[in-house]
Amino acid sequence: MFGTLLKGLMAPDPKPLPDADARLALAALLVRVARSDGDYADAEIDRIDRILATRYGLSPFEATDLRAKGEALEAEAPDTVRFTQAIKEAVPYEHRTAVLEALWAVVLADGARDGEEDSVLRMVASFLGVNDRDSNLARQRVQSKL
Fold this sequence. Notes:
It holds the Pfam family TerB. It is a single chain. By secondary structure, the protein is mainly α. It has helices at about 5-10, 20-35, 40-55, 60-75, 80-90, 95-105, 115-125, 130-145. The chain contains eight helices and no strands. Helix 2 runs antiparallel to helix 5, helix 6 (about 95-105) runs antiparallel to helix 7 (about 115-125) and helix 6 crosses helix 8.
C-alpha cells in the first residue's frame, strides 16, 4: 500500500517529500513513538490527532484518517533507524526540530515521562540529526504549553 513512499524514503539519495507524503511520514513517526512503550494510549492517539489537525489545518475526521494511514505505514516501515534517517534526508533541519516538538507532545500526552519513551526520543533525535540542545529546547517548549 505504501510501497512507493517507502521506496522513495529508502532511496540512496532521497528527494524532498511531497506535502502529502511528508504528512504521512510524520503521522507514522508519531505513531511509532507513541507505541514505543508498548502502551498506545487514548491520550496519545488524541494528541496525535490534534497535532495533525493543527499542523495541517485538518478537520477532526481528516486528522483521524491521516493517523490511521500513519498507523498502517508505521506497521510496514522498516526499523526506526532507517525510517528516521530517511526522513532526515528528506526534511530540512528546521522542520525536523518541529517534528521533535510534536514527538515530545505525544510522549508527554499521558502526563508521565517513561524511561523507554525518553530513550526512544533521544535515539530518534539523533537519527533525525537534531542535537541534544535543540531536542531539549523542543521538550521544554512543549512542557511549557501543557
